[in-house]
Amino acid sequence: MRITKEQILDHNQKQSKEHNESFSFLADQLTSQNIDVEVLVNQIASFEVSIPSWALGAGGTRFGRFPIGGEPGNLEEKIEDVGLIHALNRSSGAISLHIPWDTPGDAAAINKLAEDLNITFDAVNSNTFQDQPNQEYSYKFGSLSHTDAKVRKQAIDHNIEVIKYGEALGSKALTVWLADGSVFPGQQNFRKALERTYQSLEEICNALPDDWKVLIEYKPYEPNFYSMVIPDWGTSLLLANKLGVKAKTLVDLGHHLPNTNIEQIVSILLMEGKLGGFHFNDSKYGDDDLTTGSIKPYQLFLIFNELVEGTSGKDDLEQNISWMIDASHNVKDPLEDLLQSVEAIKKSYAQALLIDRQKLSEARQSNDPVGAQECLQEAFQTDIRPLLREARIRSGAAANPIGLFRDLNVRSELINERGSDTIATGL
Amino acid sequence: MRITKEQILDHNQKQSKEHNESFSFLADQLTSQNIDVEVLVNQIASFEVSIPSWALGAGGTRFGRFPIGGEPGNLEEKIEDVGLIHALNRSSGAISLHIPWDTPGDAAAINKLAEDLNITFDAVNSNTFQDQPNQEYSYKFGSLSHTDAKVRKQAIDHNIEVIKYGEALGSKALTVWLADGSVFPGQQNFRKALERTYQSLEEICNALPDDWKVLIEYKPYEPNFYSMVIPDWGTSLLLANKLGVKAKTLVDLGHHLPNTNIEQIVSILLMEGKLGGFHFNDSKYGDDDLTTGSIKPYQLFLIFNELVEGTSGKDDLEQNISWMIDASHNVKDPLEDLLQSVEAIKKSYAQALLIDRQKLSEARQSNDPVGAQECLQEAFQTDIRPLLREARIRSGAAANPIGLFRDLNVRSELINERGSDTIATGL
Amino acid sequence: MRITKEQILDHNQKQSKEHNESFSFLADQLTSQNIDVEVLVNQIASFEVSIPSWALGAGGTRFGRFPIGGEPGNLEEKIEDVGLIHALNRSSGAISLHIPWDTPGDAAAINKLAEDLNITFDAVNSNTFQDQPNQEYSYKFGSLSHTDAKVRKQAIDHNIEVIKYGEALGSKALTVWLADGSVFPGQQNFRKALERTYQSLEEICNALPDDWKVLIEYKPYEPNFYSMVIPDWGTSLLLANKLGVKAKTLVDLGHHLPNTNIEQIVSILLMEGKLGGFHFNDSKYGDDDLTTGSIKPYQLFLIFNELVEGTSGKDDLEQNISWMIDASHNVKDPLEDLLQSVEAIKKSYAQALLIDRQKLSEARQSNDPVGAQECLQEAFQTDIRPLLREARIRSGAAANPIGLFRDLNVRSELINERGSDTIATGL
Amino acid sequence: MRITKEQILDHNQKQSKEHNESFSFLADQLTSQNIDVEVLVNQIASFEVSIPSWALGAGGTRFGRFPIGGEPGNLEEKIEDVGLIHALNRSSGAISLHIPWDTPGDAAAINKLAEDLNITFDAVNSNTFQDQPNQEYSYKFGSLSHTDAKVRKQAIDHNIEVIKYGEALGSKALTVWLADGSVFPGQQNFRKALERTYQSLEEICNALPDDWKVLIEYKPYEPNFYSMVIPDWGTSLLLANKLGVKAKTLVDLGHHLPNTNIEQIVSILLMEGKLGGFHFNDSKYGDDDLTTGSIKPYQLFLIFNELVEGTSGKDDLEQNISWMIDASHNVKDPLEDLLQSVEAIKKSYAQALLIDRQKLSEARQSNDPVGAQECLQEAFQTDIRPLLREARIRSGAAANPIGLFRDLNVRSELINERGSDTIATGL
């Protein structure tokens, strides 16, 4: 199923009067605050967030999984699903693949399909946290950190293979999420495991094309419940510094201990030139992988406040950081969930752009926390939705993506096409 | 595979000299502190902890599962595995079943097998957190709390069916762990969901035989990541009080928010006459389901301190509370893991029995926290292992259960019997 | 110092054009959604939040305290400070006193002063967590739960005395925050301490006038770091149920373990008819006592969603629940901080009133979490500030309370009047 | 008051029979496991832990403080108190001072007193989290990170002054605990604050004598409740790496977010050559500053497991890491509390020394978590107290330090000498 330009135009037409009123009122208000609305809309319009290939079907927990129906059964269908999202919001023009879940059999055909849908390929992800059929060695006790050099070799080779798949598709980054760690005190020699991990990563780095980066994810627990080899940003940065310029840290919002100040981590990584990218999602308890912005929208805004502050402008921000979602959809339609996430991310970005930086800087310099808070809240409380809608309409996207998704009965169409029993590879 | 008395005797024989020395030294020390060692050994020996049928195979996370080999492929084999554990420790003479994972086809035959192995049936568990093939309604959005009465009816009927299976096997309790809840703010009307849950539980209670109890588990999150219908002991107690004398609260050690004082909850439930039972395990982060005593052994000891203090003696403690393990074995051999857990539980119980209650009571009365701490530490630091070993030897169990398990190559034998590819139903 | 009507009018005059534009645009939008804007403004205007007498000076931590200057040196000055806040926002017409910090020497004179400033007296608070000079027994090891009956008697008598002070001022509630607990495992017999607490509270309840309620606060830790006698809502509810209709639970937003779903607690307490009141504040780590809405504004909105849903209308909500702030101002001007908090609370209330309850109810009934989230976000993202401003202007308050506070140099005036070295009693 | 050798000898004499029996039994057992008991006792005997000068009086919280009586009123009395502790346990022969709380007026006289009591001076601590009378600039909004260069200069100068005091007393390290941070989102520019902190620390480093080190503490929150400039080990390490060889990280056990794996941090810092020292204490919720080993004794053992594993032997461990307590005694007698803490620390060290490293290494290499756990538990469950007692007796300390402390009525004597109303400077 594809969504046509006509369907979009027709949908937008119906909302144009109401939209124009609210947009023009907001534009006037912002203009009177000396904000250049045209520049702002442009910034919002060009900001895109990549879709994870592993999150296009229903997600699950160790307790169960409830299929949604019409799930994409292969890589082609996954790309088509991203195409649907992108058609609706014109802000999700890239997909991040997971190997071996999405091994592209015929790269040329895949590239052709993606091109048709205006989709490019963001970071490729390796998988050494599961055993695949016919795999020689098990990752039960680790991969890049394993005590046995043969297992490490297998995991290194897999990563190098993933890079090759990525090259064929035009990717420029490899994301390494290492599930390695230990479940019980004593099980692992922390230092030796970290040293082995470093050596393995070094070999992977050596295989990395010159214009690529490797994104090193960190996570405090799960699936290992006593220790993870790369538990926090400090360890990821330690590795990235030793590995050199190609290595950067990836921040997954759900990969932190309770109460962590994530925005401060983002700011320090930016300062060190080591912020490589994001896996966006939201959470209340752990790595809950919920819709971005559904639980702590103010935290998301504060993160974007740091991002806008810590980068040197639109191009630096858009090009030097990888913007990706990592979520799991246990009860929502994955496509609706992803539309909500992208919207929440762009909303936070737009609100961060609204912050009066001069005023904020003065409040900070004069140690006026009340003033600084008012300054942030002024931006956060602004109803930014007309701006995002305007940016979408100008880009050829739908004024109301979820509304149109439902009006067009997209899920029913997908079930008709693919059946109710398909199960997408992924989490 | 079965372990014979001769194998046990032979194993114990080899350790008898060393054991006798350490036991007699400890016995002398305790006697000089006016502790009746015979009574103590008897208390330790008679204390048993039930084994969960769903934890006899390799566990897993949403990221993967690594089979152990020789896993029990049906209920009979699960009972045989518990038989192996019980033969080794004589402290695990009961199994807690999960329906429909362990639906007993032929109850008489199952009873016969269990009897042969000195195994009885502890609480039966219902399962409304997964959909079974051919199930009419889905539990995706809840079961006992579902907005649709037809789904609730199906879940109630399932629980009643579970009671019937339990009756046929001699169980005396139903454990209800309700995964119901919501993943996103707004998704659920908290009060209506709780009211519906109460009404469903009331119908289940009505179907409960007179000498049964229903154990109501609580859990703050997972698999729902915004709210659970029964998130904490307060809600479980609220329900149990409304449901009447048959309803009690079940405490799973892993089902608490960070830093919760679990021992205090145990003590208040005892005070209210509503402590129904335990699911023992250990955790560092969330519901990690690790080997009991592997992460926070002192907390386990403090829980048993409350249990000994809050019950009126050995019989009250053993008979009125259900003692069960609930764990998941991702990297350990399940049988070894369970042997470790039972040992840790009994060790904590034994140490709690050692506490000088008169001295503790005086320290409390005179507000002497230093004295109270010394009193607890005196018991906790005592090397209690000779007492547990003595209790085992007298009961016909192995001096060193894990040692004998390995000497007899039990796992290899099970793999020989059952193959490497069997996968046990469970978590 | 007092703020005159003329100063307010003059301030409002300057903002009227800009305000009228934004208000009338928002009013049109809401009207087109079938929302009765007049009713809404009325609801917002009449909602008031009480100010804690102990939070009018600079707060501190155990590491230090940095005075603000011009702090109120006695009860009269505290009431005058609340008068300033109320003059600016017309939403803080009550003060909650702490005895013995604010013991009213001459109740008639205090009443007269309060009346002049349109201030009434909300719940009175007892203090048994500190020793006062000339106090016979120390509360070092507890008060209402103390092992020694003489200490308990002293604490009970103090609470009864607090009630009498409250009666003279027209209060209708006693707030009991019990700091009792233990710092080390073993120090306290949990059950006996809770039983003694219950008996002490029963005596206090017996002394309570017929039209009063007693609000029982709970807190998991601090100042005791192992256990608190009333650690959670479950224990507070247990006590409130045993104590009868006058006893209710008070929810302090900062008194929860990490990741607690507070809005669910609020909803269950409402369901049980036991929600007595709030201590509003915000926090990232523990009982941080920060400006309400400064850290987790969405959580505050979700709490008000439950409050609007769980009460039977404006009068029920306003009259049967005590609305109070409890905060500590370490770096902000206390008056500015309190103005920000009241604004944030009213904003959340107003946004909760905007929620389309019919639509939400349908989304819940049909298990549509995407729809439910959109429904909540629709209200939360609405820029509600013109409505609050309108409600203030109509009530005779300032369009921009903090702006006027700064324009009038209120703090400098207070320092001129009272000096830089006064230190307000409180936290 | 001083404790005489005769009092110690007399006390030990009374316990010698019972001690000798238990020691010789344990020694035999360990010898049969090929452990050299003489070496072990020597290692335990020579391991010392420094006492913080600020923890010799009753501690408190922001809610109150309950004096203990007989608190040291000046530096001399503080040193005398440490002398008492050291006389009782011969394991606390150093004091860590806090300036300006303990500014030594006459360094020569202080040195003489300390020498008489066999006390040396461990790391000196600066204090820029409180304002002192007559201080020119306030630290309300920070010190080394302050936006105003004049405030930073004052804080730098203070640190340099502290170094000079330390030099006069023979200290070799400066501990910098920086309370700087922000209370509200937006208040502080994270990166600029960290850059300013780095520059300030650089100036302090430049003033550091060649044989000194500077210990950089980290803490996630309190007294700032939104962000701390040095919130975690990653930031401390970042600074230490930039500052060079003299700069190291100090680990305070209470300065971590919930569920942090502290032992892993310790191991990574050791690996990087940047573990400078410890502030020992224990906690259940936050920076509770409780008696070391009173809440999570197994975690303490696991930390020492890393320390023994990660250092190259007794001298490396003792000399290159600073071993200090940092605690607050709200309800215990400070001297008893410190005796308990030192005992718990040495017990964990001793148990870590017992671990069969060959066996552990093999279990790790072969991925046998059951074996690794058994290996750790074998050491942890050994009742090590006779070894510690033996080490004390041989060193001239008391067999039972707290017992003798109570028998000699030390606290009463101190109250007689100093009165009930003295208040020790400190926390």
From TrEMBL, chains A, B, C, D:
Q: Which UniProt keywords apply?
A: Isomerase, Manganese, Metal-binding
| The Xylose isomerase-like TIM barrel domain, residue ranges | 104-289
User: Is Manganese given among the entry's keywords?
Assistant: yes
Identify one Pfam family in the record. Answer: AP_endonuc_2
Is Manganese one of the keywords?
Answer: yes
Alphabetized InterPro entries for the sequence? L-rhamnose_isomerase, Xyl_isomerase-like_sf, Xyl_isomerase-like_TIM-brl
Q: What is this protein called?
A: TIM barrel protein
Top-down, what is the taxonomic lineage of the species of origin? Bacteria, Pseudomonadati, Balneolota, Balneolia, Balneolales
